[in-house]
Amino acid sequence: MKVGILREGKAKTDTRVALTPKQCRDLQDKYQNLEIFVQPSPDRCFRDEEYQSQGIRIEENLSECELLLGVKEVPISMLIPQKTYLFFSHTIKKQPYNRELLRSILQKKIRLIDYECLRNTGGKRVIAFGRWAGIVGAHNAILTWGRREGKFNLKPMYKCHDWAEAQTYYQNLPLSHIKLVVTGEGRVGNGATETLDLMGIKRISPQEFLENNKAEPIYTQLGVKDMYRQEGETSFDEHHYYQHPEQYISCFQPYTHTANIMLNGIYWDKRIPVFFSKEDMKHENFTIRVIADVTCDIAPDSSIPSTIRASSITEPIYGYDPLSFQEAEPFQNNCIDVMAVDNLPNELPRDASEDFGNQLISTVWSELNQSDSRMIYKGTIALNGELNKPYEYLQDYVN
Ligand SMILES: NC(=O)c1ccc[n+]([C@@H]2O[C@H](COP(=O)([O-])OP(=O)(O)OC[C@H]3O[C@@H](n4cnc5c(N)ncnc54)[C@H](O)[C@@H]3O)[C@@H](O)[C@H]2O)c1
């Protein structure tokens, strides 16, 4: 089989790749009939020469390849008819900006397998970048706090060679007054706690967090059971919550009076209650001064009203004035600092790509060769010019 690694075409800042040079080499060594070709790219986090030095061919024309691997949406002009593509298409929520992309995929009779739709038998996603978004998100939260307090300047993650370098700056940071609440227990939430643990910030239970008045750096992590409840109910049925989140109310309020940093890493959609309102943010007892919103849904369709726009890797922080509801200069006493970078794993593209490639190899690669794989069937959005059965609900969007 011939496999092509695509040059990312959506934005220059997308420097990640699905397989590293070493992973390509290992796969070729393992499978005798496999040949991997890499489209040249001046922007990719692994240079063309790094692939070549592992014996992988650089090739502009990938029309001989059956399977093409990208990361972000492939521009329509780069799509080759009748091939199998794997990438994040961002079409399953009927995103308007990718309607033409899906139309074109159908016209060109492309088989589209979307990484976001690849799940194991328990329904959990098998391949994602979320852990790295959490790792970088927590780094940026503490960086923002250091600058806000004027106490320290943490080197931005994207300026570090890799995560190992960033970790060398975590010793002896003056973090004494930090009270940080992490929302979410998935990839992002758990990635964030990796960074916080390395920084020596003490993890405590949600209950202790609300009661702790000592000037020591602490954090707590909240899952859905800590954040939502049904009115009049004392127990929490997680399965029921996922089925009917609209029947629940938020119990996040006490943390808005206790924490000074919030790292938001929990999934949210319009059925789920918001954590707090614009009005809540005006109150004197709203103590949160830094919000690292990794989930990064943009207001008004968001759980956090101050996430009024996404920010960028090079300019990650903006201020939010809770009285005027407007954007303001960052690091002002009367304002809240927002870190809302929506492509955080790109700050550590080499580490994130390697991890992603390992997940691809260990969970997806062998499935791709099985004609009856449930995982691949359920992850396939389009084939032979039609929507695959699980995605027929997209027909009106395509039309
Ligand atoms: N800013 C970025 O660069 C970036 C990168 C990756 C992911 N994200 C976003 O971060 C968020 C979390 O991603 P993740 O990888 O941790 O996801 P995940 O599936 O690993 O974890 C999701 C978390 O949200 C909770 N949750 C609450 N309601 C849910 C629901 N109805 N369905 C599913 N989960 C629900 C889960 O219990 C879990 O704690 C997502 O919104 C994702 O799009 C942002």
TrEMBL record:
Domain Alanine dehydrogenase/pyridine nucleotide transhydrogenase N-terminal: 4-136
Coiled coil ranges: none
The UniProt record lists the keyword Oxidoreductase: yes
Gene3D superfamilies, per the entry: NAD(P)-binding Rossmann-like Domain (3.40.50.720)
Pfam families linked: AlaDh_PNT_N
Binding site for NAD(+): G186, R187, D226, Y267, V294
Single GO biological process annotation from the record: lysine biosynthetic process
Molecular function via GO: saccharopine dehydrogenase (NAD+, L-lysine-forming) activity
Keyword Hydrolase recorded: no
SMART domains: AlaDh_PNT_N
Record keywords: NAD, Oxidoreductase
InterPro entries the UniProt entry points to: AASS (IPR051168), AlaDH/PNT_N (IPR007886), Lys1 (IPR027281)
Domain of life: Bacteria
Annotated catalytic residues: K72 (proton acceptor), H90 (proton donor)
PANTHER family: ALPHA-AMINOADIPIC SEMIALDEHYDE SYNTHASE, MITOCHONDRIAL, SACCHAROPINE DEHYDROGENASE
Protein name: Alanine dehydrogenase
Organism: Mastigocoleus testarum BC008
